[in-house]
Amino acid sequence: MSDSGNHYDAEKHPEKASIESASSISDGDGELYELSDSVLHQKMKLINDAIDEIGFTPYHLKLFFLNGMGYWTDTQLTFLESSVRTFINYQFGYTFPVSNFMLATGLLFGALFWGLSADLIGRKIAFNFSLMLSAIFTIMTGAMSSMATYCIFVFLSCFSAGGNLVLDTCVFLEYLPHKDQWLLTFFAFFWGIGQVIAVGLAYAFLPNNSCSSIQDCPSHENRGWRYVYYVNGCIVLVMAILRITVIRLKETPKFLISNNRDAEAVELLHNIANKYNRKCSLTLEQLESIGTIEINDDFRKHLDIKGTLQLIAGHVKTLFSNRLVARSSGLVFLSWLLLGFSYPLYSSFLPIYLATRGATISAPDVAGVYRDNLISNSVSTAGPLIAGALLYLFPFLGRRGVLFIGGVCSMAFLFGYTQIKTRAQNVALSSISYASIYIYYAALYAYTPEVFPSVARGTGNALSVACTRVATVVVPLIAYYADTSSSVPIWICGAFVGVLGFLALLFPFEPSKHRVV
């Protein structure tokens, strides 16, 4: 965000306002919201200066790992359900992927609930309680005795965890110095860890504790899926306890400023600076002398339904406050929607596609299938590391350049995947495909919260993740009714990811060149 020390009355000098508007838009997100509320813009500049002055501290390191656990949980629960789904269907006599549908629906409503509420009541409640609720419901899912109750608790566990992708980057970003914003790309690494753990536990428990067909599958011979749920739930429970005990998160300074709670923001930043012997020059008088913001209001003053809906509508309006901002938000939402179709569709079609390619392509037994899957998912964790390295070593690429590289490389490898002839080629190409698509994932996870302002960041993230969740709800239906024996779906997924790469070049803002507001 460039310096905004010289301000003027836009009503008295409309021609200057027009000139600054044009230059501000070209400079990036940090200036975009100045004309809609110059008071908020000036206060955010002071907050950013204070955060940069304090620098990266052990508090930020704790936030990095504890927020990463939220990403970890999101993918862990997703891969957990997909790993056991076949044996759940065997036991309860189902062929339609109803549990997958409930999982996606839970993640969708969770993203909207936790994300929209984060801009109203703050980030703290979701951060502290989402994992705890998710852990409890996950453990309880393993004890269910019917498909109906199983699906209910799948929904509840995913609803509880659904806000993690929305809030984790949001919380970390709003404490982060500008020079360290590239660290956001590493959150997708935790996503890889979560899926590796889920697949690894499935590999450990399912092959020897599961039935083999829908015709003969009594509960006492099919307890592997229960063990998987119990262990995964306990892991999430440990992470939830760490979130509450290791770090006592307070509301982020940018959320406090956006809600006219200046004194709390100053106190918070000074407490961090004093604890780690850092300098912080920000004073309450500096903030109060600027005035009161107008484009947002404290939720505590609007506890009725009408007032709440008005605040939410105001946050959404902020995401489309002018033509260029609307273009940015629209392209981000479109990218998440296409990503929600491409990656889950590839995952849903892949097992059946492999089964039609012959015995030389896939493993001959259940244990071998999970082993190959574990290898592919383990390699996927390299994607975020590559994305972070590209941003750190080649800063001229920016977020958009890394998004382009990830999308185009994923397209190439997915197209190549249709030509595999052996099991070794299957493992190699699937591993590389996962890693390359995670380069894109990592950069998009970082880019999305950076281009939304703090006053509506939770809302913007929620709508972005909701777009991909809507697509994820539809994917099981496509996979169930479509012809999964051909390579056409993989070609379509590859084309989608390639389009995403080129779409990134149309994004109007490059966050690496300025500070976020």
- Could you estimate the helical fraction of the residues in percent? over 70%
CATH topology: Growth Hormone, Chain: A
Low-confidence stretches: 1-35
Provide mean pLDDT, rounded.
81
Structural class: mainly alpha
The outline comes out as: globular
Describe this structure in words.
The protein is mainly alpha-helical and 517 residues long. The chain has one domain: MFS general substrate transporter like domains (Growth Hormone, Chain: A, Up-down Bundle), CATH 1.20.1250.20. Helices cover 72% and strands 0% of the residues. The chain is built from 21 helices and no strands. The protein has helices at residues 14-27, 29-32, 38-54, 58-92, 98-121, 124-141, 147-161, 164-173, 187-205, 224-246, 253-258, 262-275, 284-290, 305-318, 323-355, 366-380, 382-393, 398-417, 423-450, 457-481, 488-504. Helix 4 packs antiparallel against helix 8, helix 9 (187-205) runs antiparallel to helix 10 and helix 18 runs antiparallel to helix 19 (423-450). The longest helix has 35 residues, at 58-92. The model is unreliable at 1-35 (pLDDT under 50). It comes from Spathaspora passalidarum (strain NRRL Y-27907 / 11-Y1). It is a multi-pass membrane protein. This is Major facilitator superfamily (MFS) profile domain-containing protein.
Task: Summarize the entry for a quick read.
With 517 residues, this protein is mainly alpha-helical.
Key features of this structure:
single chain, 517 residues, mainly alpha, Growth Hormone, Chain: A, 21 helices, disordered N terminus
